[in-house]
Amino acid sequence: MGDELTKAAVNRAPGKPRTFAIYGLLVLLAAGGTAAEEVAEVAMYTDTSDGLALTSEGASHFARLALDCIHKEYPNKLNQVLPSQELLLPPATLHPAFYGCFDWHSSVHGHWMLAKLLKAFPTIAERAEIEAGLSRSITADNIAAEVAYFDDESGSWERTYGWAWLLQLATELHTWPYPLAEQLRDDLAPLTQLIRDKYIEFLPRQEYPVRTGVHPNTAFGLSFALDYARAVGDAVLAEAVTSAARRYYANDTNCPLSWEPSGEDFLSPCLEEAALMARVLHDNEFDDWLSAFLPGLADTGTLAPANVSDRSDPKIVHLDGLNLSRAWNLQLIAVRTDDAAARARLLSMAREHIAASLPFVASEHYEGSHWLGSFAVYALTR
What we know:
- This protein is mainly alpha-helical and 382 residues long.
- It is built from 15 helices and three strands.
């Protein structure tokens, strides 16, 4: 039945909360075992002149997705190269902190999302569950085991997508003046340091950027690493990232945006690069670079949201993530441009992309629910 179980009803009145209805099957314990559709309408975010803002109802919805998976061990994709049979172990043994949500990076950003939501909504209904979940996962012993795993991995494991989300989690904890966050930050610190050092060691060796629309995308990995470096005042990491970005991308022109998307993208190669350079280039550089790299980006009809034909397919559903990541990148690019008319059009595109996929970030298909909540929250809180 697929997408027929999940429909959207978006309220587009300016300045009012955007709402959507999730249609799920409620199996009734009535004679004959008949089924009926139950509709729940949730105000997920508000849309004002200041931008998009996640609502408390939306926060609870997304928190529930992560809480339901961060300690769910199976199904699981370890994605590891085995040096010997000694590492043929259950996920929770190999990764006692981040074994849930299907794979390591999704578990990491699920924990980031919970920290973000509790930080932004300290009275959220799921507060106690979030605190308990974070405290159960991120302990000194669990993180020591996660660090030890890197002694035996292939060298490219989770590079740089998982690395980036780990630093995003560290950024959230570092910028949150709350006793629990401080404890979690300190317990996470050995893994944070390891990942930070991996960036510094790796970037000089990477001669060319990876321009794919999935996990290894270099621009995505550099963006989150730079955000972390600036948040914690790590000048060495910031210099490593910005110098790599300029080396890889400063002379790029005419990115083929019309070629996007590929069939399993959840990142836009063109927009990820543009959003990174929006972070890296000075005010007097960025507009000139953007006009050469993506000429006509803000023109009407340049970029339509991707159509997601089957949300039960683990690769096709990536396209919901593409719509959401495009949205947060368009927002960042818009903030950096000096052209007011272009800024308004880019923000409008971002809204269209969010509206196209946000209603479908639900629990029906684990193929999407184990990770899309983080993308939705990042897009609505960037």
